[in-house]
């Protein structure tokens, strides 16, 4: 068979393939059910394909005969491989083609929850891997010569307070740390307006369902005293001022300021009304002050968050006892322990629209939870839910198993004390069991404190969150898994406590899921990947605030200065 004949065969084989591939729509994101299928070929196109297939088959037989006659096996091997691939793909018209993925349409790496399979493969190696590296001591590499210390007080005004321009009343909503955000920003706004701040009211949130008042969570007297030289604070509006508004705070004009308003906005829009009426109200008051304001106003935020706001005596006393118990339980690691903020409650799993390994039962429970909390938000016409894409993009809450696997890969062994801060974990018995298997010295607030100690806190989610917050603040390592206001404030507090370094593991879940979706991964490779995540978190431990970032998470350089 001549080379000319072979070349003609390749032309016949390649041309229909090129036509078919350019006419087919690629499906981005992979998977057999999430993409849009290509239009079916017409009957005429089918006949053309059959004719082309017969020509290709004849050419393939001709090539094989020529190879056998000339015994050119080694030279023909690549040619045979390519030809076979073309022939195999000829009848895959109905299979979606994913961009950058094999033609068989397998989901891209990181798309599927395969962590239990990976765990079963790696568990024997985890048991056999005796840790000699003392991971708790080597986790962080913050240089003592580059420590930061609080310095915001020198930015505060030292001239004393002028007469007040009136009373500022705000309503804080949300959970513990959203309330904290509102309180600290309200102190700053009161400083801008030279107003007297009334102890903030807490809105009874339909989600949090906590009726606690300011004094139930925070130490009112300490708050007022700490701020006294810079912002006036009173427990309630004076009687004579309240009478101006028919003894009804709701009658006081609500300014309804825009989100992230500047200092200029408050001086131009709010101050004139305050001077006119003697009192103004802003409700709701959440994220109502810009991130970047003059340094003396930022210093008020620092003062209120890091010094003035401390938990009430009942919370503080029990939380301190819980910390001491964790230290005692951690004698094998010099009193040091790990804390984890685990966001795997039912509402969090439902909102994420991610799928795990619960099958039909899980799907029904998540549909029910979404409908209960968000009333059709996820069923709107045109809205598409893509769990595989969510997982690849790092939007899925980590399961307790995934948390345990990651920490073991980082070198923390089964003698490491672990504190888990969370709400009620979804399918708790199923998902928490493997984490306890990996870390037998695991504690929660329910195991660390007695039921009698917790009685005053039951039914008050913000007070319970305050217990978790304190135990996490004093851990050697803090692991955040899903974001939110809890880690937002805690990371900033830890930077303030530990010389500028947050000592926090904040995994890039887009990278993490690649290891958790690979049942063939070797233990040494898995460990290298986890140590890279730990190293990256260590490098990001000391970070300066960028213009649009929050001071409460990044207190340098507004609240802290470098210290040799």
From TrEMBL:
The keyword Transferase applies. Keywords: Carbohydrate metabolism, Fucose metabolism, Glycosyltransferase, Transferase. Residues 28-53, 364-394 are annotated as: Disordered. Residues 364-374, 385-394 have a biased composition (Basic and acidic residues). One of its GO terms (molecular function) is glycosyltransferase activity. It holds the Pfam family O-FucT. It comes from the Eukaryota. GO terms for biological process: fucose metabolic process. PANTHER family: O-FUCOSYLTRANSFERASE 9 (PTHR31288:SF22), O-FUCOSYLTRANSFERASE FAMILY PROTEIN (PTHR31288). Belongs to the glycosyltransferase GT106 family. This is O-fucosyltransferase family protein.
């Amino acid at each position: 068979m001549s080379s000319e004949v072979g070349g003609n065969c390749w032309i016949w084989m390649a041309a229909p393939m090129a036509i078919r591939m350019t006419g087919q729509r690629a499906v981005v994101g992979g998977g057999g059910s999430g993409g849009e299928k290509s239009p079916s070929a017409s009957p005429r196109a089918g006949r053309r394909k059959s004719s082309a297939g017969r020509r290709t088959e004849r050419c393939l037989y001709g090539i094989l005969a020529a190879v056998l006659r000339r015994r050119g096996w080694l030279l023909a091997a690549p040619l045979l491989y390519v030809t076979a691939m073309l022939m195999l793909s000829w009848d895959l018209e109905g299979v979606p083609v994913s961009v950058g993925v094999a033609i068989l349409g397998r989901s891209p790496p990181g798309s599927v929850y395969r962590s239990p399979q990976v765990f079963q493969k790696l568990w024997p190696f985890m048991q056999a891997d005796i840790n000699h590296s003392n991971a708790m001591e080597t986790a962080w590499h913050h240089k003592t010569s580059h420590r930061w210390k609080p310095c915001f007080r020198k930015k505060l005004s030292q001239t004393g307070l002028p007469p007040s321009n009136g009373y500022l009343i705000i309503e804080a909503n949300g959970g513990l740390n959203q309330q904290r955000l509102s309180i600290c920003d309200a102190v700053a706004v009161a400083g801008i307006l030279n107003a007297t701040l009334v102890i903030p009211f807490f809105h009874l949130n339909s989600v949090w369902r906590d009726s606690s008042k300011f004094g139930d969570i925070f130490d009112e007297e300490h708050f007022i005293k700490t701020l006294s030289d810079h912002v006036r604070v009173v427990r309630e509006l004076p009687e004579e001022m309240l009478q101006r508004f028919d003894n009804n705070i709701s009658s006081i004009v609500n300014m309804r300021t825009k989100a992230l308003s500047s200092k200029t906005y408050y001086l131009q829009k709010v101050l004139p009304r305050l001077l006119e009426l003697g009192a103004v109200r802003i409700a709701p008051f959440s994220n109502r002050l810009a991130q970047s304001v003059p340094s003396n106003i930022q210093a008020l935020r620092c003062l209120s968050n890091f010094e003035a706001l401390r938990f009430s005596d009942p919370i503080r006393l029990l939380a301190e006892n819980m910390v001491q118990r964790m230290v005692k339980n951690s004698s094998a690691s010099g009193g040091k322990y790990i804390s984890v903020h685990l966001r795997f409650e039912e509402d969090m799993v439902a909102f994420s629209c991610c799928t795990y390994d619960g099958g039909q039962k899980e799907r029904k429970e998540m549909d029910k939870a979404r409908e209960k909390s968000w009333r059709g938000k996820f069923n709107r016409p045109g809205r598409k839910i893509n769990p595989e894409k969510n997982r690849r993009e790092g939007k899925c809450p980590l399961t307790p198993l995934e948390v345990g696997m990651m920490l073991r890969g980082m070198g923390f062994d089964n003698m490491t004390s672990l504190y888990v801060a969370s709400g009620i974990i979804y399918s708790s018995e199923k998902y928490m069991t493997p984490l306890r298997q990996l870390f037998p010295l695991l504690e929660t607030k329910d195991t660390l404190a007695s039921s009698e100690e917790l009685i005053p806190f039951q039914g008050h989610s913000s007070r319970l969150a305050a217990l978790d917050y304190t135990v996490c603040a004093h851990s050697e390592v803090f692991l955040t898994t899903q974001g939110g206001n809890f880690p937002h404030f805690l990371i900033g507090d830890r930077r303030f406590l530990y010389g500028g370094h947050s000592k926090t593991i904040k995994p890039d879940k887009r990278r993490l899921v690649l290891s958790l979706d690979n049942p063939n991964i070797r233990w040494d490779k898995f460990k290298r990947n986890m140590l890279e995540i730990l190293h990256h978190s260590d490098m990001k431990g000391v970070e300066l605030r960028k213009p649009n970032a929050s001071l409460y998470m990044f207190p340098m350089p507004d609240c802290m200065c470098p210290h040799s």
